[in-house]
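ARCHIVE CARD
CATEGORY: sequence design from structure
SOURCE FIELD: tokenized fold
FIELD CONTENT:
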């Protein structure tokens, strides 16, 4: 583990915040979509966090839930500029473009803090060398939780936010909007095909399972390092709401 200095913190709601840290040279290079460990240095609690910054950026960025009695985030949520935190020096993880077969369109489908790895992927120029079009969907409870929306609007992607517990122009769970075809209609895109579409999934376990089962029933194969496929998934780091951090 390395000690890194917090350079900025942003709070989105009572439940969500993001922060940036220094990135010392001891931290090994990583691929967009990977995660590393984070701790506060004063006890044994370490948690895996997807890295939200791009591999080429000079700092590291993370996106986190706040669990009020969580062993890590009850304290992590109070960090300020200048504080030091522990960051693992060996990022890892399989939610990476290398585990996907070549395709035409890349779909990144996130709920909640599952957005984090995709923030790295859509800020990595290499992504756009591999795919003609990149679509990022983010499903959250409230409009306030649409973190990073301004930044995403400046990326060369189709950004498709959906909100489940407030009225919004694209309302409801992404799984429902995919099943009804509303997403494809809204974006003027054809439904998913194993020929053209590659899908990355990151969110709560129930969401991940639901989407995986749906894709597997339609001949989409999960990709690994040894055998790249049509989709990859990883549970969101850090924990989703309702889970202990
Ligand atoms: P909902 O409001 O209907 O539960 P959370 O804040 O609990 O982490 O959830 C983030 C978003 O993911 C919420 O908008 C939530 O919708 C949605 N969600 C939760 N479970 C699923 C699921 N199984 N499939 C699709 N979306 C889900």
């Amino acid at each position: 583990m390395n000690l890194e200095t917090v350079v900025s913190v942003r709070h989105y709601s009572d439940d969500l915040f993001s922060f940036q840290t220094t990135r010392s040279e001891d931290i090994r290079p990583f691929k967009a979509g990977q995660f590393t460990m984070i701790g506060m240095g004063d006890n044994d609690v370490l948690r895996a966090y997807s890295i939200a910054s791009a591999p080429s950026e000079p700092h590291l960025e993370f996106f986190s839930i706040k669990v009020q009695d969580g062993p890590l985030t009850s304290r992590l949520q109070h960090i300020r500029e200048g504080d030091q935190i522990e960051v693992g020096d060996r990022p890892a993880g399989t939610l990476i473009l290398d585990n996907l077969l070549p395709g035409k369109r890349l779909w990144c489908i996130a709920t909640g803090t599952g957005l984090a790895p995709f923030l790295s992927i859509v800020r990595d120029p290499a992504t756009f060398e591999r795919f003609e079009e990149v679509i990022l969907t983010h499903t959250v409870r409230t409009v306030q939780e649409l973190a990073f929306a301004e930044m995403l609007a400046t990326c060369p992607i189709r950004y498709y936010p959906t909100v489940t517990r407030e009225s919004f122009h694209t309302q409801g769970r992404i799984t429902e909007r995919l099943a009804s075809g509303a997403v494809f209609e809204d974006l003027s895109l054809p439904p998913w095909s194993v020929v053209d579409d590659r899908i990355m999934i990151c969110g709560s376990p129930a969401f991940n399972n639901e989407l995986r089962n749906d894709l597997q029933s339609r001949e989409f194969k999960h990709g690994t390092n040894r055998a790249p496929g049509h989709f990859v998934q990883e549970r969101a780091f850090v924990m989703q709401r309702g889970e202990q951090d």
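CARD ANNOTATION: The longest helix spans residues 205-216. The first strand starts at residue 2 and ends at 11.
SHELF: design records, drawer C
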